[in-house]
Specification:
single chain, alpha+beta, five-stranded mixed sheet, two-stranded antiparallel ribbon, 17 helices
């Protein structure tokens, strides 16, 4: 019966310590509680071995040594707990050095056996005769016990009527109950020669330990939901612990019991021990290999995959993800967090690259705008003089037909140069904004009507996909019409033999989207990168200046919007303009 009680006490103590520790392994109070539980488990193991399996006094001295030392260690753990609880405070090292200083003298006295005159079984009864040093040792242990209780009592006065105060109050009750039981069992009854309760010392500690654990776990020790939360938050710890316990129990039942029965069925001979040792070692390999397999499968392999993915991200392969089976343990959470981090890193880097491209494009546009203004001014003045001279010559009556034909050719070239300078002026000119509430659908329809007067545009199949419920945007309608008309005419030029032109408006979060999509030949990546650069064009010589899309880009960005292009070689091109719904805080001018 006693051995069952000791086993039950040991199991409950270890379970409580494990449960409280994994609740918050970094908390100093939980760490100290785990240390206290470890010492108490040693105490229980000592009693289990001595009182159940030793019938002589040959180990009585070691029982006494371990009892005094473990009792001292438990009280030291209690004092440390009182210092750090409930705020996980740092250990006061100087104060600890002073409080624990007497142990430097008392611990060697324990090992030298100076705390008792006699210990062991006398006449079938356990007897221990203590010396004066033993009472000094016990007094010091009680001093530590009382000092820890006093520190907690002072904290209770500070945290009274709070959750922490309730926790400290419960722990003080646990200390009081344990003090009463231990004093009666270890001091009072042995003083009168009654030693029968000593084997039950670890049993008497259980009520106080349960209250202790109940308080430190915020009174959620017996909550099923808390247990489920613990399993959800720290499943690897539980998995390993449960795996080890399960393998140990199963291997004991399947291997050790049959081996013991087979080895010692004819008595405890040398041959029997040889059999037992050899086959015990062999049988131990199976559960150990199983444990290694479980650890490798649940910890090592997933961590290796995460490490490989991290190295790939370090080498520049942003967006790399870990392919692991979905799990709710720490490794599963780590893998999910890593994948999310890698995805966001790839998105952020792509966004930064886009911003850099936009910034470089804006700088090029600004530089070209300044240059274009100067070029247009310098060209227009002499061009006007040349045009005037041509008109004067043409007005003369004595010129022949050939000369008139050449003058007409000159006038045509002058008109072409004038158109280029006007494009340059439009590109560089700063115009006052006239932003009001504008219906995007009306601007798109107006642009389509203007484009429809073009004979080549009439060859196209127009598909309208208009969202009639779009709100107005704060914008310059004329400038937006210039953008959309330019996109429509570019699409016309991309389909000289006809094709399908799709124009759509839609909502996209806090923006209104306008897309113009053609079924033309499309563009490659290199062409798309240069598309908005000034003077870049894919049209034949004399068909375009390469300023249209640059102007569109400037107008859209001045409206706090953005313009995107989606195209692949042979699959057409789609331009999409995004404009914010809010009235943007813009300059009073736009490019």
């Amino acid at each position: 019966m006693l051995v069952l009680l000791h086993l039950f006490a040991l199991f409950l103590i270890v379970l409580l310590g494990f449960y409280v520790f994994v609740a918050d392994p970094r908390n100093r109070a939980n760490q100290t509680f785990a240390a206290f539980i470890s010492f108490l488990a040693l105490w229980t193991t000592k009693d289990l071995v001595f009182w159940n399996f030793v019938s002589t006094d040959r180990l009585a001295r070691w029982w006494a040594v371990s009892s005094f030392l473990i009792a001292l260690l438990m009280q030291c753990a209690l004092v440390v707990f009182a210092w750090v609880f409930p705020d996980s405070a740092r250990l006061p090292k100087r104060k600890a050095a002073v409080v624990f200083a007497p142990a430097i003298v008392l611990v060697p006295a324990v090992f030298l056996g100076l705390l008792w005159r006699d210990v062991g079984y006398r006449g079938g009864r356990f007897v221990i005769e203590l010396t004066a040093i033993a009472y000094a040792f016990v007094g010091y242990v009680y001093f530590l016990y009382g000092y820890g209780a006093w520190v907690l009592l002072r904290k209770y006065a500070s945290y009274k009527f709070t959750q922490k105060g309730q926790q400290i109050g419960a722990i003080l009750w646990a200390i009081a109950i344990t003090a009463v039981f231990k004093t009666a069992e270890n001091i009072a009854f042995p003083f009168f020669g009654i030693y029968e309760l000593l084997p039950y010392s670890s049993i008497f500690l259980l009520p106080g330990v349960v209250i202790y654990a109940y308080a430190i776990s915020n009174f959620r020790l017996f909550s099923l939901q808390t247990a489920l939360d613990q399993f959800r938050l720290f499943p690897i710890t539980y998995k390993i612990a449960i795996s080890i316990a399960a393998v140990a129990i199963v291997s004991f039942l399947l291997f050790q019991i049959p081996i013991v029965w087979w080895a010692f069925q004819n008595g405890m001979t040398f041959e029997a021990w040889r059999r037992y040792l050899v086959f015990s070692v062999i049988s131990a390999l199976v559960p150990n290999l199983l444990l290694v397999l479980l650890v490798v499968r649940s910890i090592s392999r997933p961590l290796q995959r995460i490490t490989v993915a991290a190295v790939q991200v370090t080498n520049g392969k942003y967006g790399t993800e870990v392919d692991l089976r979905k799990s709710n343990d720490e490794i599963g959470l780590l893998a999910d967090s890593f994948n999310e981090m890698s995805r966001k890193m790839a998105e952020d880097i792509q966004r930064l690259q886009n911003l850099n491209e936009q910034l470089a494009r804006a700088e090029r546009l600004a530089a070209m705008g300044t240059l274009a203004a100067g070029v247009a001014h310098e060209v227009n003045n002499p061009l006007a003089s040349i045009s005037s001279l041509v008109q004067m010559i043409r007005s003369r009556a004595d010129i022949d037909a050939e000369t008139k034909e050449r003058l007409d050719l000159i006038s045509g070239q002058i008109a072409r140069i004038s158109q280029v300078t006007r494009d340059l002026t439009d590109f560089a000119r700063v115009r006052p904004a006239a932003r009001t509430g504008v219906s995007i659908n009306d601007v798109v329809d107006s642009s389509l009507r203007l484009a429809s007067f073009d004979g080549e545009f009439q060859k196209l199949e127009i598909v309208r996909s208009i969202d009639e419920g779009l709100p107005e945007v704060h914008a310059d309608g004329d400038q937006l019409q210039q953008v959309f008309l330019n996109l429509l005419l570019n699409s016309r030029d991309a389909m000289p033999n006809g094709g399908t032109l799709t124009v759509a408006t839609f909502m996209d979060g806090g923006h209104i989207g306008i897309s113009v999509e053609d079924s033309g030949p499309g563009m490659d990546e290199e062409m798309k990168k240069k598309l908005f650069d000034p003077f870049f064009t894919t049209k034949p010589a004399g068909k375009g200046t390469g300023l249209g899309l640059a102007v569109c880009y400037g107008i859209v960005t001045a409206h706090n919007g953005r313009i995107e292009v989606d195209s692949t070689k042979g699959n057409g091109t789609r331009f999409t303009v995004y404009l914010p719904l809010e009235a943007p805080n813009l300059d009073t001018s736009t490019v």
